[in-house]
Amino acid sequence: MPEIEWLISASYFIAAVLFILGLKKMSSPVTARKGIVWAGAGMVLATAVTFLTPGESTPFMPTDNLVLMVIAIAIGGSIAWISGKKVAMTDMPQMVAIYNGMGGGAAAGIAAVEFARGHMHGTTMYTLAALGALIGAVSFSGSLVAFAKLQGIMKKAFRLPAQNTVNIILALVTLALGIVIVWLGQGAHSDAGHAISKCPVVPAWLLISFFVCALALGVIVTLPIGGADMPVVISLFNAFTGLAVGFEGYVMGNPALIIAGIVVGAAGTLLTQLMAKAMNRPITNILFQPISGEAQAGGTIEGSMKEVSSLDAATMMHYASKVIIIPGYGMAVAGAQHKIWEMTEWLENAGVDVKFAIHPVAGRMPGHMNVLLAEAGVPYDKIFDLEEINSDFNQTDVALVIGANDVVNPVARTDKSSPIYGMPILNADYASNVIVVKRGQGAGYSGIENALFYKENCRMLYGSAQKVIADVIQNLKTLG
Fold this sequence. Notes:
Helix content: 55-70%
Distance between the termini: 75 Å
Strand content: 5-15%
Low-confidence stretches: 56-61, 192-197
Number of strands: 6
Radius of gyration: 26 Å
Strand order of the largest sheet: 3-2-1-4-5-6
Order of helices and strands: HHHHHHHHHHHEHHEHEHEHEEH
């Protein structure tokens, strides 16, 4: 049916254009919402067109598969809609991790079905299917571990004896099993004169062993990772999922999957590189020498922590000329972004110049702080990246750090033994005064003690960020 084939091809092309334009619009906070809508429309179109794809038993999709597809869409769509409505902004990183893992798992599942059916032919098909299965399975199981860590289900990092050796051996075994699968698959079809087999050509035990090893590899690689490395890991698995989807799209001959996978894979790869650069940590270090999030031994820090009251903090900012606010995950946990914006408005009414400084790895996923501030209504022109604002701290009266730790830790410049040494940080310590809002005196998410807290120009304002900032607002009101 040429008309149907033309309609399918045209629809996939339109969907691809919507994916690319949507991603482009997501690059700016101003147009990000439109970008999500455009990309979502492309995905709806691509999904709808799938129902027109010719099947084996009828001109359209076989009836039994059609019913299963509708049921799967109904179940998955309902779960996504309900969870998307209920999830708190603080839980967004783990939601991204679990959804990303589902994409990788779906790609691995497609490969498993294709291997089991034995309908593929040629070395290229089997190679791409095996690569997609390997990458997708690793992304699936690794993302589940990341979700468990972010959700607090898994409260500590686990490192096996000879962890890196285990990683390498398991990776080699998985790769070897994949090579055997490719060899058996393409060899069987070559013997049959390149005819497409109608029965599985790869033994079930081999497929099961391959997927078990791939899933185990994702778990074991991710288990030791924690702390400041988590945003990079989430981004890396996002890239893995995109690549896996792209490979399986080629195997299935589905242009929409190919384009979507390539776009997501490329974007995820670039983002991972940017995140790693922002931490000055190569990807190999993140995977093989991770920051666990447990307490780190380090040199002795001179000085002591000095506490400040909410009244004194309010007074310091009220009479300041310039204040820079540095949000971190503590702000997200407390849900304090709305109070912070209310405080900002009071300061601006008093003639204070207020800006927000965002480190690329602040929070627990890329862009986490930007999303929270946007939710609170903070104008985009008040939010600055590290490179844009770092030179301003020398002329800043007060740097207000809210729940951030590693991204303002001066040991990144001075202590070569620190896991974060060499990581570009926000120069909060260069401000005339630093106020740190923190729940307690413990180390931050990476487990590294922060030398900033002990400096002479730093004062600690203890308590939950939302309550503390509310007290500051009340004191600002009394100051007029």
